[in-house]
Write a structure and sequence with these properties.
Elements (H helix, E strand, L loop, with lengths): L5 H9 L2 H14 L4 H25 L3 H8 L3 H35 L6 H18 L2 H25 L4 H8 L9 H11 L2 H14 L5 H34 L16 H4 L3 H32 L8 H19 L4 H29 L10 H26 L1
Amino acid sequence: MAKDKSGYIIAAAFIGPGTVTTASLAGANFGFHLVWALIFSVFATIVLQDMAARLGVATGQGLAGAMKDMAYKPWLKNLFVVLIVSAIGIGNAAYESGNLTGAAIGLDAFIDIGIGPWAAILGAIAIVLLWSGSYQWIETVLVYLVFIMAGVFLITLLVAKPDLSAMFNQLISPKLDTDAITTVLALIGTTIVPYNLFLHASLVAKSSKGLDKQQAVLACRSQSARAISMGGLITLIVMATAMMAFFNQAATIDASNMGEQLKPVLGDKAQWFFALGLFSAGLTSAITAPLAAAYAVTGALGLSDDMKSRSFKAVWMVIILVGVSVAALGFKPLPAILFAQATNALLLPVIAIFLLVVMNKSQALGQFKNSWKSNIAGVVVVGTVVGLGCYKLVNVFL
């Protein structure tokens, strides 16, 4: 993976079926009242991914390895290992089930054999691609499909002549209550994906070897900001089209009619095109999620991160199999995908706090340690996510 693609790989990783589904639900149910959560998510993703990229360039290793090396006491090192393995394992298993469910929904629109069988077939495809190591070209094709879909959403939005005044009024009237909190956490979880921090650091560490570190950091920072902002714009466009089709309308959004938001341009073919986009987004993320888990777990355990090593293969294999199993259990598709995103948001503070500590304490970082500005931004991000997570838990138990 070349250095000049890492930022776009990260953006493609979070533009999965969770993004399409969550953004559609947010727009359909809340209009633009939750755009504040998306704006925060894009800002937070840029801040955290910049830290991960600097870490990879400066140390030449991934986030998991850096965390473990920073722990001088054995008990702390063991704690890091347990938390990294459990957090990324649980998070990616949930995320993988959402990826496979979303892709299965897309395929089931073409050939109706059920979500479970399609999830199993997709899991097998992901296994074959990762086992061969030739997933890169497949990923590139699917990323293009996702961006083509984004273009159609944009054209649809323009043709539908959106009520810009209503959008602006909702934008400046942010909403956060018991009805909206799960969707807010899902928007955050689908954008600030914890596993992307591990994936980015590992990709950059490998691709920047032998390069000038200062130039590599500047290039990664610029590219990541562009790619992540583009991903945020795609999410916003999906929210807007769903808002125009469903918000304050008699119809309610579900898995069967989500593609209705594309009808102004595509007519009766809208559902099929939407299904194709959902499939391509799902398979892309279904490949990157287990890949990132493999980097994180092998780094934490001190095992080989070579894609052809047995330990590396074993980790992503477990993630895929768990994802297939959960997807095949028959959960309702949209709640399953939404739950996967919310789970990621609740796990995010654990990983983000560790990243902040590493970026301030690691001796290997040198000039690439966090500045006071980066620390303030990081604290704001972590504090906000922790606050939202606590708000969610309080409403669950009280």
